């Protein structure tokens, strides 16, 4: 146990200093016990598509196992953004010469890093699943430290590349992170629920606690987008908490004095109202900083929010922020079946709602696993496209939808038009699992047509907005669930 803790502290130090390749070398050569290589891979063997994405030559940084057959390859991208598409282009070529490997990417300034594992799914096509751990400025490192420490080769120095790959696959298992987060969430939830001073109605107290958690979780996600600032800091909740504790006022309460203003005035205030200029010359900005208006309903003030007899002690917020949020990495990008961040994503908003909310069994609220969502969306799309474009063969449509390969389509223009005009409605939308799943499927298919056929030249943002506005519909009797679905979209 002491050795494991010592390794984790050592890895933490390296990740905190990860600003250049020297820190990366120390991590793999000294701490994770891989063999030194430090060899540049020739650009002459790279395709033009890869050359356009990378700065200099990819670096074979380290190797491991029998015959040094497992490789650690570092690539510095030209862009300041760690583009998933750029990484996919690079990895797909490098895998031809390095089938057993961990790929490390940085942006051009080396301020943000991706550790990328490629795992093959169980489908007949053996599709590549790209799984990432993010390290860099503003990132919580607990998840990265825990998972990267599992890559240590000290006890298996001569393992086969298959065995090392299996260890990497296990380390990048997002389900393990999700389960750990959910366990901690449940434990924290029960503690906070017990601390809140309430009336005698235990069911209403539980729903109020759930609403508090969902609001704070959503704030944590939009904080990751950089939409919230307090005193020029983008680690918004931490900055807000620290500012509150510097306030020497007596009889203060964080929920009443800060969060209620954030929820019901800042995030629930239309843009035409300048929150920095109201209430006695803009004092509100001193309390909550700069925040956007979110038209989702989650931050509308309900009757229980107005009840002054409900007391949320500071210990509740301290527990949520420090025992839960700061222990896990958050990402604003919802995972797709073939692209996963090893972190807590917005899907968790729906999962915790459908797992913990009172009466979910009675109301029929159940969480649907993502692979099932993806399968059902694809089956629906295959049936729809075959009906709409009758001259396409069933095999060509299946190849397009399942493998994102449009090469055998007779009329890709007609397929694109069918995708643009489809109407998808979930009559029991809940917190939006199927709507999000269909959004990803439609977006990927349209991007595929653009990449291979030059069709649909809109940006990813424009395509996504178009799909949300024109193709997706949903209803549900639970207003709370609908608000979560709207905000996830």
UniProtKB/TrEMBL annotation:
This is site-specific DNA-methyltransferase (adenine-specific). The keyword Methyltransferase applies. Gene3D superfamilies: Vaccinia Virus protein VP39. It comes from the Bacteria. Keywords: Methyltransferase, Transferase. The keyword Methyltransferase applies. GO terms for molecular function: site-specific DNA-methyltransferase (adenine-specific) activity. Its EC number is 2.1.1.72. One of its GO terms (biological process) is methylation. It catalyses: a 2'-deoxyadenosine in DNA + S-adenosyl-L-methionine = an N(6)-methyl-2'-deoxyadenosine in DNA + S-adenosyl-L-homocysteine + H(+). It comes from Dulcicalothrix desertica PCC 7102.
């Amino acid at each position: 146990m002491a050795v494991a803790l010592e390794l984790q502290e050592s890895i933490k130090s390296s990740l905190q200093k990860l600003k250049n390749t020297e820190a990366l070398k120390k991590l793999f050569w000294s701490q994770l016990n891989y063999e030194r290589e430090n060899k540049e891979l020739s650009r002459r063997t790279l395709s033009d598509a890869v050359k356009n994405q990378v700065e200099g030559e990819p670096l074979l940084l380290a190797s491991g196992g029998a015959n040094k057959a497992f490789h650690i390859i570092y690539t510095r991208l030209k862009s300041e953004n760690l583009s998933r598409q750029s990484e996919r282009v690079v990895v797909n070529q490098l895998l031809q010469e390095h089938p057993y490997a961990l790929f490390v990417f940085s942006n051009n300034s080396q301020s943000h890093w991706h550790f990328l594992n490629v795992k093959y799914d169980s489908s007949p096509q053996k599709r590549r699943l790209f799984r990432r751990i993010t390290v860099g400025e503003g990132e919580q490192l607990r998840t990265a430290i825990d998972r990267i420490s599992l890559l240590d080769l000290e006890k298996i120095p001569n393992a086969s590349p298959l065995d090392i790959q299996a260890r990497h696959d296990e380390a990048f298992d997002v389900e393990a992170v999700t389960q750990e987060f959910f366990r901690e969430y449940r434990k924290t939830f029960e503690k906070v629920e017990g601390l809140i001073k309430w009336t005698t109605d235990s069911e209403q107290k539980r729903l109020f606690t759930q609403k508090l958690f969902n609001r704070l979780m959503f704030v944590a996600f939009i904080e990751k987008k950089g939409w919230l600032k307090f005193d020029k800091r983008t680690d918004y909740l931490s900055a807000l908490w620290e500012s509150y504790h510097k306030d020497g006022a007596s009889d203060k309460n964080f929920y009443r004095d800060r969060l209620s203003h954030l929820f019901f005035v800042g995030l629930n205030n239309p843009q035409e109202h300048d929150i920095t200029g109201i209430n006695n010359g803009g004092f509100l900005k001193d309390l909550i900083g700069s925040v956007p208006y979110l038209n989702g309903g989650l931050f509308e003030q309900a009757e229980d929010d107005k009840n002054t007899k409900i007391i949320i002690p500071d210990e509740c917020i301290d527990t949520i922020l420090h025992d839960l949020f700061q222990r896990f990495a958050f990402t604003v990008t919802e995972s797709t079946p073939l692209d996963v961040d090893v972190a807590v994503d917005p899907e968790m908003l729906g999962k915790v709602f459908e797992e913990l909310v009172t009466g979910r069994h009675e109301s029929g609220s159940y969480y649907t696993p993502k692979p099932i969502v993806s399968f059902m969306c694809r089956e629906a799309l295959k049936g729809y496209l075959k009906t709409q474009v009758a001259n396409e063969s069933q095999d060509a449509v299946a190849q397009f939808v399942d493998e994102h390969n449009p090469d055998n389509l007779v009329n890709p223009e007609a397929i694109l038009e069918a995708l643009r005009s489809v109407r998808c409605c979930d009559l029991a939308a809940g917190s939006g699992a199927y709507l999000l799943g269909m959004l990803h499927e439609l977006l990927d298919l349209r991007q595929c047509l653009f990449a291979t056929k030059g069709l649909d030249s809109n940006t990813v943002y424009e395509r996504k907005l178009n799909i949300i506005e024109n193709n997706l519909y949903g209803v549900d009797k639970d207003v709370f669930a609908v608000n979560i679905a709207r905000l996830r979209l």
